[in-house]
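Hey everyone, long-time lurker, first post.

I ran two proteins through the pipeline my lab uses and got sequence/structure pairs for each. Pasting them in order. The first:
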Amino acid sequence: MSALPQQGEALDRALAEWRATLGHDAVLTAPAAAERYGPGSTRSIPAALRPAAASGVAHAVCIAARHRIRLHPVSTGRNWGYGGASPPSDHCVVLDLSRLNRILAVDGELGTVTLEPGVTQGQLRAHLDQLGLPLMVPTTGAGTSTSLVGNALERGYGITPHADHFGAVMGLEAVLADGSLYRPRLASLGGERMVPAYKWGIGPYLDGLFSQSNFGVVTQMTIALARRPPHVEAFYIFLDRPDQLAPAIVTLRGLLRSMGGVMGGVNILNGYRLASMACPYPADALARGEPLQPQEVAALLQAHRLGAYLVVGSVYSEAPVARAAIAAIRRAFAPCSGRSLRLTRRKAALLQGLAQRFPRVGAWLGLGQDQAARMLSALDLMEGTPDDLALRLPYWKTGTPLPPDLTRGLQTGERGLIWYAPLVPMLPDTVLAFEAMVHRVCLAHGFEPLITLTSLSERCFDSSVPLLFDGRSPADTERAWRCFNTLFAEGRKLGIVPYRVGSQAFHTLQGSEPQPGLDLARRLKLLLDPDGIISPGRYNL
């Protein structure tokens, strides 16, 4: 059986019980819930709950189960480009966990933190700084106000030493659909102190069931944090021509194999993505309402002394080791690249000062004030300090000044953003075929092909391709989804599939071919949540 749509007396009774249990201020009815969680979504949201403690989550779920009311949990709801707080199906009450924002424990010796779903990147950074601990936040470009737990559960990644964010999860607790509590078995056997130290526990590994699923509501998580090394140094490798990409991939693969112990994640940005970061969107192109063509992008990049691609990465170690590693990296890329740049925080600050005080010198260096700021921002992320600079991207094509609060346009749905994030084998021929496909599909649908390739290992990239559009326009929104669906379908023909999709894109995961993994997951869902209480339809479960 599955939970019924929230209509009539059942919802009214549940709302009354939630108010009595959680407090009136923690329960939002339809108009307020739709206004807060519905922008940019087509889903019907009948209510929302905002418990202030983990115990309230269990009570909320028990009430929902008793009245067969659907719940959709979100950590902060700021899942930019992946559906935000929008449920995967209609008539779900949003269970907003952003008020569960306690940092429960920090172990400076083991380098772990135990926290609740509402704890943000910025909050953890401030807390670690207050404690004086040289630990790194697992940063992403999503900004300071986004949830660490939510990102880890979606298997997010970054470019710090612990790039795989779910890989750094040491343990978690979750409320199941019947209101019972899941805890790691190791903790239940008296090994509470071992949970932060050993990920796999004893017996079947079950924490992974709560990643990209709807089997329960995670209420706390322990994450291993990388220790900030004595020296962090970035490298920038500029590829001037398209034919340099294939040998650069082979070079990167070899470096990750031989130097993976000191290298963080590495990004390869194509010319379009570089232009979106370094160049204002041309007014004439904005006026004609068509995407920039390759020759226009090439001219923009040339004017800013940029080439066809940029390889960006970092090294973490003692200063002598880091400097030697950077020198080896630059030598390895030399046969297939143009200029290269090594950058420490001190050097980046110096370049930013030069660009501000002497704009002509900055122009000669190919470095404007905005580019210098982005270099400092990249170093911040590499060192585990989050910022909001990457949130400028959705405003690239607006033709208006940036707002003071870069998150607002995303929250209101005015700035449309959909991420296509496929896994791509680190094989030059496959990468080139993928890039050609993205160029063809995006331009045909009226979008610039903004491509980033991020190394997840020496075997695999994750690519992130943002589709930017006016979220206020139904026609633009429909065109963006047509483009996304085509990218997904054409990618599958190449054997390339996303590592995650948003709440409004789960339909793309359906297919006529057998999916034994999905069949098993559905059997588990039926066992754990027979009435379909928690986020029905999420990842087709």
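...and the second, right after it:
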Amino acid sequence: MRDLALQPDREHLMAHIREFARRVKLSGTPEELESFQYLQAQMDSYGYRTQLLSHDAFISLPGSAKVEIEGESLRCITHSMSASSGEGGISGDLAYVGEGTKADFAGKDVAGKIVLVDGIATEEVAALASAAGALGELHVSPNEHLYEMCVSPVWGSPSQHTRAQLPKTVICTIPRNDGMRLRERLARGEKVRATLAAEVDTGWRKTPLLVAELQPAGEDAPFVMFSGHHDTWHFGVMDNGGANATMLEAARLLALRASDWQRGLRICFWSGHSHGRYSGSAWYADEYFDELDLRCAAHVNVDSTGGEGATVLTNSGVIDELKPLAAEIIARLTGQKHAGRRHGRAADQSFWGVGIPSMFGSVSHQPPRPVKMLTALGWWWHTPHDTAEHIDPDNLRRDTQIVLEIVWRLLTSPILPLDYTVYADALGKQVAQLQTELAGRIDVSVLANAIDELRVNAKTIVEAKDLSAAKAARINDSLMRASRHLVPLNYTSGERFHHDSALPHPAWPSLEGLRALAALPLTSPETAFYAVHARQVRNRVAHALRQANAALRAALED
């Protein structure tokens, strides 16, 4: 494997930033399509084969909003996927529910009321409020800014089976100071009447999706997928213009060394991220499932690079088997030690069901601040203030260098840098705890034994040296086949062909049936029922581990 020895060009990056600062790019609008055409022209000029696709997506664009408290109008916005109120709006008494967690809603009768919620609007609060029969939600921003959000708990466009999960509440956000006044009145026992009106344009529309690829290893060879969304809130110069500039500059430099690649590169620019709950990447995962299953080796997503003040490089989301790669590159380029946190349920990570190892989303973050924010991407994130003035050219160049080096390694390593010893250690801790908690109720030793075998097989691959090209190809194929079984265990409920919801998920959600049994008191009359499901969950996990080990073992025995 050869070193890259190429550096991102600051002027190229900032030229892209200036272009992206020209347009508001709402999903499915003519302005967004114009900007996609700029992306396509750039990728064409670098020698990539491009295709600008168009597909149906369920998109929600927030319009005008109004909040009145007993005749007083408050500054506000509504949100993507909020219910529309109709011209007259909705009225109801306010009910304070703290941060809107499940515990905050417990024991409160909010049916027919408007819940007052501390914090930025989220899909989790929308789901809880809708289920509780609330008429509306009034969110209180953590500061004076109003943050645009998509509040659908459905991942991607809804089907006939998931459309009922869309929010039923009218949802608005007001500034912190106004919210504080309302909280104080409620704390004094006052009855506060609110009226919310929201106009939200929600429905099916065509959205673009740009695919650009180079396949120097052959048209049917494996490829690395490199992606980011192009739609924005307002001008979205950091989110996601910074990342789009990173993608273009990385694509330009990587193409200069395509003769050194071991596998191909497919670059995807999504729409529908901000206004369709990742509808573009979800559609692509569904439409091209077979090809992705057969050929995609890894996925690198990039979001919101180059923000001013973004000095923290330790907290990006990386799947277990790619953590050593991220840690190595970030330490070498920045001197920081990457912590390798788990992915959240975000960042166009629509490919876990396919079984594709993934990394990143946002790369750099703000240091901790006194005000609690949903993300660490800067106070201007998702506001009209996300403009070019908040791009730091040096940070943009630094972030681009990190992403460039990561993709380069994935393209050029003779053996894919997927270290499943890290995966085995992480899963092993989960199963060891369950063994203790389930002792005497259900035997999960088959999982512990399979994890031990996985650790041995993976260690042999990580330590392999001086392999022939044919042997390396067999190992890479086995790693890809193993990942199709292992990634879904780590990041899905176990269903490969339907997307899990966009709601927060626990670590290793495929183990939830075992955890549910472990959480029951030993004398619970429900035990026998829970044991039925727990055995099925154990068997699914055991089967996936057996298939992964068989794939790795076959390559090692050749």
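Reply from user beta_strand_b:
Welcome! Quick read of the second one: The two ends are 23 Å apart (CA to CA). The mean pLDDT is 97.
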